[in-house]
Amino acid sequence: MRASAVFFLIAISSIGHASVPNFAQLYRETEDLIKLSKTYQRLENNDEYFANFDHSKKPLDFGTFDFIVVGAGTAGGIVANRLSESNFKVLLVEAGHQDPDTASVPGLSSYFFTTPLDWGYNTTEEDKICLATIDKRCIYPRGKMWGGTSSLNGNGYSRGTKWDYDAWAEIVGSNDWSYENVLLYFKKAEKAMFKIGLDESYHGFSGPQRIDFIEDTPGLTSMLLRAFKERGSIEVDYNGRNPYGVSRLQYFLDRNVRAGTAHTYIRPAADRPNLLISDNSLVTKVIIANNRAVSVEFMKNGKLYFARTSKEVILSAGAINTPQILMLSGIGPSQELKKHDIKLVKDLPVGQNLQDHIAVYPIFFRTRYTYYNLTLKEQLKL
């Protein structure tokens, strides 16, 4: 039996601030975001992309590119950045728009779950989880903007355990996936900014991706750490050699600002002449000829386009949308595709075996004593 790491994360923080020159504007946008999140009705489909679409018209030619990357999210934005460092002509297709200034404020992330910047997904009815909800279904946040879910998630930096990577290496029969080898790339991407508890041999210090602690809610983190230590836990770097113990949470953070893929990889590359970012573009199909992906079709502003590739189509549309696009393109379980009259290209178990994080949330007790009670404006100024 393979052991899994067990550690307790201390993740106490205030809202934080964004690096925008006009604080009054940020404050107004934050108020608008909070109001919208309380009234917004989450979408149940993608009909908005097909409004006024004339099905009789042929797709419009969007051009030819060396590489087409589908999804400007956590992975896709990085791939597009790296490919466009060379002279390759790259098209980055994104269903959403640019991430707003409010997305750079880490503590506002949950408000985006009920806005147009989230895909609006829910889990199916469950019998062991989501039991506190009316229909036993949980919302399943997925970002629909530059940076994808890295622009609205909890912002935590956790690589996973050594044993998972070593297991992958064994399954695929290649040592390239061993933790020892992938650690080189984690370190290459990282610029660790924190010092407390740092296991230096497991971190990088010159990469583009800043990793840091969020500024502590006064005294609370220290208090919780002391409590765990009194119970026998030791403080560890959970991304280091020993993941067993209690740890402060490491964040994708650039001076208290969310440092997701949009901040770190997309925006610095957006003005490159060989990188074209097409926003508001919903990919509907990858066209496959002679067992090769040759183009993609996508809806943009009520019109259907196709873009050709001379090299590769790279699907980075996330754990939900990538399988969906593959199945719409004819790659997936044959019986499922047959039900929807989709021509089969390859019978594969696409969309099966989705596994997500396992998390147990503690019980919170409320008292009349207010430990940390700042106004919204005061928190944004932190």
From TrEMBL:
Q: Which Pfam families match?
A: GMC_oxred_N
Q: Which residue numbers delimit the Glucose-methanol-choline oxidoreductase N-terminal domain?
A: 143-166, 318-332
Query: Entry's InterPro entries?
Result: FAD/NAD-bd_sf, GMC_OxRdtase, GMC_OxRdtase_N
Keyword vocabulary terms for this entry: FAD, Flavoprotein, Signal
Query: GO terms for molecular function, please?
Result: flavin adenine dinucleotide binding; oxidoreductase activity, acting on CH-OH group of donors
**Signal peptide, first to last residue:** 1-18
- Gene3D superfamilies (UniProt xref): FAD/NAD(P)-binding domain, Glucose Oxidase, domain 3
Which family, according to the similarity comment? Answer: Belongs to the GMC oxidoreductase family.
Designated name of the protein: Glucose-methanol-choline oxidoreductase N-terminal domain-containing protein
